[in-house]
Amino acid sequence: MKIYLTNSGCVVEHENKFHSLPDFWDADSWDDLIRHEDLEAYLKEAIAKSANAAADPMKDTTALRAPIGNQEVWAAGVTYFRSRTARMEESKSAGGGDFYDRVYAADRPELFFKATPSRVVGHQGKVAIRKDAKWSVPEPELTLLISPGGKIIGYTIGNDMSSRDIEGENPLYLPQAKVYSRSCALGPCILVSSKPLPTTTGIRLEILRAGQEAFSGTTTLANLKRDPVSLVEYLYRDNVFPNGTFLLTGTGIVPPDAFTLNPGDEIRISIDGIGTLVNFVG
User: How far apart are the first and last CA of the chain?
Assistant: First the structure.
């Protein structure tokens, strides 16, 4: 089951049919939806009572919105070996290489604030690169939707835009490298499920420049070192999320050091079972 947030309400895809739930269209009503601990059961009951059929929302992507209400967006770092290696390489000049190695091996994960809803764009939206950055990349990440009670109730695709040169200069600059306007994309939908995704789940990143492939890479959840449930447990320690939250779980795909995003680039992130999130750099 998948849910899409459109300009006219919420659309639920279930058993190859699309159902319109017009009551859920703004941030506050979306928050009410997310507060259901058993979201899948609630949606099944809601569409059984509704006679409103809907068209496939992916056929009119201009109507799609980022599937977020008033939730905060957080992120986990150094959760894949490839990410650890990349962060060590970018931080050599600042003496931070060993720092990231210790983070990768530690019991406690790296967790950081990523975005408010106003900083998030949706499918087909324009993400941004910082004007004072010279080395920027997208980071494709499986993203957890978590209820206020700390239960994983769904999954989406996240793009954690990152300024690698700023972060590499000094690890304390991470908030500036990660948190800025249009630094995050979510979508195109929420895969509603409380069950863990299989470790064989594939993640693919494609970056197109002038219609030609400039970079591509793949990984699977088998390479994710941290258990998503454990990440959530750490995030909710001594913390309260009354509207629930999103948590990006880290990236296992990092473009080479010589690569940086340019305005006009197209970023395509695909995750098995969820779909493809498309964004443009602008």
Answer: 32
Name the strand (E) or helix (H) holding 42: helix 39-49
Length of the chain: 282
State the Cα–Cα distance between residues 168 and 26, nearest whole angstrom: 38
Q: Pick the closest to residue 83 from 262, 246, 205 (CA basis).
A: 205
List 14's β-bridge partners, or say none.
Answer: 17
Q: State mean pLDDT over 103-115.
A: 90
Give the separation between CA 202 and CA 279, rounded to whole angstroms. 19
Residue 10: which H helix or E strand, with range? strand 9-14
pLDDT tens sequence across 114-165: 999 999 999 999 999 999 999 999 999 999 999 999 999 999 999 999 999 9
According to DSSP, the β-strands at 120-121 and 64-65 are: unpaired
Domains in the chain: ranges and CATH: 2-65 (no CATH), 72-281 (3.90.850.10)
For residue 175, the one-letter residue type is P
Which residue reads 């793949």 in tokens?
218
Cα–Cα dist 73/227, whole Å? 18
pLDDT by residue (tens digit) across 170-200?
Answer: 889 999 999 999 999 999 999 999 899 999 9
Position with higher pLDDT, 102 vs 97:
102
This prediction's pTM: 0.93
Residue 185, token pair as written in the block: 């994309």
- Cis amide linkage into residue 109, ω under 30° from 0: no
Burial class (CB in 10 A: 0-12, 13-18, 19+), 208: middle
Q: Which amino acid is at 91?
A: S
